[in-house]
Each structure stands twice: as C-alpha cells, then as structure tokens.
Model the fold of this input.
Amino acid sequence: MAAFLQQIINGLSLGSIYALIALGYTMVYGIIQLINFAHGDILMVGAYVGFLAVVYLKLNIWWAFFLAVASCSLLGVIIERIAYRPLRNAPRLAALITAIGVSLLLENGGLMVLGTDIRSYPAGTINNVQLPITLMGIPITVTTLQIIILAVTIAIMLFLQYIVRYTWAGKAMRAVSYDSDAARLMGINVDNTISVTFALGSAFAAVAGILLGLYYNTIQPLMGIMPGLKAFVAAVIGGIGLIPGAMVGGFALGIFETMVSGYWSSKMRDPIVFLLLILILLIKPAGLLGKSNTEKV
Amino acid sequence: MGKSKRITLIALVLLLAVSLLAGCGQGQKSGGQQGTASGGNEINIGVNYELTGKVATYGTNTKNAILLAFEEINSKGGVLGGKKINPIVLDNGSKQEESMSVAAKLVTENKVVALLGPATTGNTLAAIPVATDNKVPLLTTSATNPDITVDPQTKKVRDYIFRICFTDPPQAIVGAEFAVKDLGAKKAAILYDNTNDYSKGLYQVFKQEFTKRGGQIVAEESFNQDDQDFRPFLTRFKNAGADLIYVPAYYEQVGKIVSQARELGLNVPMLGADGWDSPKLAEFAGGAANLKDTYFTNHYSASDPNPKVQAFVKAYKEKYGTEPDAFAALGYDAAYLLADAINRAGKAEPEAIRQALAETKNFEGVTGKMSFDSNHNPVKEIAIIALVDGKQTLKTKIQPTSN
Done:
C-alpha cells in the first residue's frame, strides 16, 4: 500500500509536468487548429534561459522564471508571425509541416549554439527538501519541488480558465476559435488575439521547462522532444482544445505511465502509452472530456 | 552600391577567416607533416575523443592526459631517438557516426600511424572497421565491452584493436565480491540501461556472480538512454527490500538515479562501475550528501599513495587545475604505452606498432602493472572507490579471481 501511494505521488508529479506542457498545445490548437510541434522546443529554450539567468546573471530562480517567461513569450509570438501566419489560409497540413520544421530548427539550432553538453542547475537553486508525510497512517515521501510543480500547474490552469472566461482577451479568443472570419467582422483583431495565445502558451512552456530542468536536474538541447510528444498525447487523451482536458489527460498519462513502469516493466511503458492514444482516437476521438460534434459544412 | 559591395567583401573575408580559425581549433597542431607518416621528424597519432556531447567529460579528460603525456615524452627527446610525436585531436561529439568519420579522416587525411580512442564502447565499435580496414592499430582507453577486441560473431581476436582498461566481466565480478564481502549485501536490485551494451554486459555478469556468492537479486529493471524518471522503479526496489542497488550506467543517469533514490528515502548502498567516474556526478546527483554510501569499481584512484600515481596527479593538476580521473589516467597510460610500443617496434609503422602492442609485458602505468593477454586485454588489479563527501577515495584494490 505504501508503495502504491508512493507510485501515485510519483505519477502526479510527472503528470503535472505533462499537464503544464499540454496546456500550451491545447490553447494553440483551440484557437487555430494547429498542433504546434515546436512547443516542446520552446520549453527547452525556456529551460536554458532560466539556466543562463541563474548561472551567468546570478539571478535568483524567480527572476529566472520571469526572464524565461518573457523571452519565450516573445519567441512564441515571433514564431507565429514568421512561420505560421503566412500559412493561415493554406491547407492545415502545410502549417503542420511548418511546425515540424520549426521544431527541428530549434532543436538543431540549440545543438549548434548551446553544444551537446548536459548542464544542470546549480545545487540550491531551489530549496528542495523531503517532506515525510503520513497519509492514512502510511509514510510516503514528497519533496517541496513536487509540491511546487503540482501547485504551479493547478494555479496556471485556474489562471487560464479565468482569462478565457472572464477577460476581454479571453472573449476574443473564444470568438476567434469559434469562427475567425465572423470575429473579424465583429471588429476583433484576430492577429493580435492569436499572438496573445502564442505568448501565453509559450510562457507556460517556459515555466514547464525550468521546472523540468529542476526536477530532473539536467537540461540539454533535445530535452523538449519526449515531454513534448507525451504532453501532446496527454492533450489528445483529455480532449485537445479543452483546458481541463489537458489537465485530466496530463495527470492520467503521468499516473498511467508510472503504474506501468512500477508494476510491470519499463519496456512496456511507451508501447502502452501509444496504444492508449490509438484506443482513445478509435473509441472517443474527441478525448475523455470532449463532446463529439459534427463537423460544420 | 559600391559601399554595400565593399561591406559584402569584408564580411566574406571575415567569414573565411573565422572558418579557417575554426578549422585550426579542431585539429590541434595539425600543420606541417601531413602525408608523411614515418618519413619526417614527426609521428602523427590520431586522437579521436568525445570532447562534446553526452559523455564529454570522459573524452575531454582523456585527451588532456594524452596531450600531457606526449608533451612529456617530446620534451624528453621523443621516440625512436629524437622523433617528435604529433597528436592530432578531433572531436566525435559522443556520436557513433561522427566517431567513424573522425577515425577515417585521421587515417586517410592525416596519415596517422596509430589511433587513440574513443572512450566509450559504442563509439569505439564504430571506429573499429576503419582501423581494421586500413590496418592501423587502435588503442582504446576506456571501452570495456568484451566485443571491442574480440569479434562476437567469429570469436576471433581483432588484430588491430587493443585496450588499456580492463574489460567489463572482471569489473562486475569484483563488484559482486565487494558487495557480498565488504558491504554484506544479501538482497540486491539492479537498474541498468537497456540501450547500452556496456550496461547490459555488466548487469548480466553481476547478476550471475552475486547469485553465485550466495546473494539474491530481488528486483531488476532496465531503462532507456533518454529516460529521466526512475522513481517508479526505485519505489519498487524499496518495496522489495533491496539492501544494495547495482547501477552499471553512465554518470549522467547515475546522478539522477542516486538523487531520486535518496529523495524517496532509499538510503541503501549503491554500487556501480567505471561509468560513474566524473567530477560532474555530484552535480547531477543533487549534491555530495546524496553520494553517501556509494561505491564503484574503477581503474585507479588519485588517492593511491604509489609515487608514480602521485607524480602524474601533480603534473596533471599543474597543467589543468583539476585532479585527474580514471579516464585521464588511462589516457596517460595509453599515450606512454603507445610511445613505448613505437620504441620497441623500432619504426613508426602501423604494422610494427601493432606487433609491439600485442607483445606488451609488465608495462608499468599509473593504472597498474599490465601485460596483454591473447585477447589484447590487459591483466591488472581493479580499484574500488568510495565517494566520501562527494570525493573519490580508494577503498580497496581487488585482483579479479575468475574469468
């Protein structure tokens, strides 16, 4: 039982990171139906900006978060402006291929500029201590970092829900996602709305990047590929385009993966995860929380 | 119009200069004697190492010690009565395909008479066909897999391939002996890298030897090279009641595994192999405190009181400012052994050097006294290192018994 509870904690921590990354995928998809494959690589850029801020600029971790968020938002907006906007009226496949291109550009550009060395945030960047917690009489171990990751993910989701539901920008986003042409006719600046979406999504990726770097103690230029892919799977499982779906999908995937590794075999983990994805797409293509609505003609 | 043309021209010249400089940086001191392998006054030796990439610290430290050794040899009059050794250093980026092309470049363009490196098994395996096809001896410093010197398919010794480190099996045997006798371990768990031949080989031998000595393997799990999260396995190990965890992997993963194990309150001794040897281990393990009660089998220890070792440690420290690790020690030995072989061969020709290397007897290096067996593997003692406050200290030395 102790082992089971501990595995749940392990899964929740992994799941929160997936959820955090999945939020970015979901937002962009929700607005322009584009799977932004470069999202995982923006995360990598965020992790490096944070690393540079801590190691070379000697800033504390909160300033590192701030710098990473600022630069990744800018990067997200620039990528959208240069790579995606010119293709907005092109077939969706063209934009998807461009996204893969941007992703490869960031990965290999990263390898070129940053080198292939693995770096790690200096010890003590964040005060990470073990908290021996007793849950229903069973001792389990949780670290402060795990709690921070979980808290940040939930806070960001709530923040996002607030923005989307109660602010002007959110209203514009919903309008653009519903029908961008009609939104334009109603006087909504569609381009700006999409830029805001990319800025927000990339900001979350930056936060996820630093947390991932701290959680695994290492960063390298290709670090975004696998978490990016897994978060995409999480977004699809939960229902891509839905903010709570990204959370549910992320947590579900994290716990699921941990359970497969913990009780069965690590070799089965990835095959089973992708099998799960295929099953979801076959049985409930809109995702766990998605409502299937017929395509507009 | 004229102005913009001039700017373009200046930019072009600058670009050319930069690319020339970059070229020079890659091949250190590569000028002069190209095309004349043994005729001139310099002998070209290829140095193919992991200077960037996943295992960059292995390659960089080895290369540093090789250059130190060759400098010492050259300052004492070189080899063959006055010829200087000219090391040509190229980076393989810790990648197999790069390792192969670097070896090919050294052999065909730089006409080297022998190759040193790479450091890891995978990268060395990639360079082997180049050495064999061109009949140039290759001396690897730290590739420990048995397949390096013996072709696993034909079971024949690879004529041109040698190594200066011990192989994996004795390392795992000594590890198992130490675990049972010194650490009193009875229930071991093993966590190994399934995508890595080095790790898999050690896992198999350790499992066999540990059980043979009365121990029990209570859990085992493998991971992939790119895995980051080991908590699910470690939680299972803890639950299985393991009193020792054997982790035959490279420092980057080991660091994460140790830190995640300690974080889960899994404070049992952890044992590994020479892949642990890196000054970055403590950094990746989240601090020296996490390394309490961790040990690994290694080629040498800088805390060894042997005067030969201490002289090397001093010289290396003076030149590079850090303590040499086992990779550096092996690089240093390899460079000296190669120079010795060239002297014994009487001429700087690949075939003669190959012959001399195969006949190595009682060569005294900083990693111990060694003779080559019929499989081109050195026979020598293995050191067990304990990490005390993150610092490597010599715990004991064990001569492998079986195998």
